[in-house]
Amino acid sequence: MFKAPFYSNGRIGRIEYILSILIFLGGDLICNVTLGSPSKNGAYAVILIVLWVFMLMQGAKRCHDIGNSGWWQLIPFYFIWLMIAKGDEGENEYGDPQ
Predict the structure, then answer these.
(1) How far apart are CA 21 and CA 29, in angstroms?
(2) Inter-residue contact 5 to 54 (CB < 8 Å)
(3) Is 38 strand, coil or helix?
(4) For residues 88 and 4, is the Cβ–Cβ distance under 8 A?
(5) Helix axis angle, 14-35 to 42-65, nearest 10°
(6) Mapping DSSP to helix (H, G, I), strand (E, B) and coil, where does residue 39 land?
(7) Is the dihedral of CA 68, 69, 75, 79 positive or negative?
(8) What does the mean pLDDT of the chain come to?
(9) Which of 2, 3, 44, 63 would bridge with 68, disulfide CB 3.0–4.6 Å?
């Protein structure tokens, strides 16, 4: 689980994707409470960028698991489908399932 979280290659399942969302939201909440607004605190802005990159890479891997390009995650509310859709069984063009 969480093998190479900052790379978009490979596939991840629903559970890892949902955990990634929770990590993103938890990290954002902790930073917001402790550091204040990202527009007023540069450290929060940097952490937020890292969290967004993490989430985009995990989203791309989840898209790969259902046989789509990572660009599909840019469709509004597509993340909901990523949380509920079953991944492709067996190997697809993005590799073996986890």
Answers:
(1) 12
(2) yes
(3) coil
(4) no
(5) 170
(6) coil
(7) positive
(8) 90
(9) 63
Half-sphere exposure at residue 17, Cβ-oriented, CA atoms within 13 angstroms: 28
Of 19, 8, 24, which is closest to residue 73 (Cα–Cα)?
8
Phi/psi at 95 (5° precision): 120, -170
Q: What are the start-end ranges of the H helices in the chain?
A: 14-35, 42-65, 78-84
Number of Cβ within 10 Å of residue 26's Cβ equals 11
When pLDDT is averaged across residues 39-50 and rounded to a whole number, the result is: 86
Cα-based angle 7, 60, 65 (whole degrees, multiple of 5): 110
Q: Alpha-carbon distance 28 to 40, whole Å?
A: 15
Nearest to 79 by CA among 98, 62, 95, 92: 62
Say which residue the tokens 């790969």 belong to: 64
Higher pLDDT, residue 78 or 5: 78
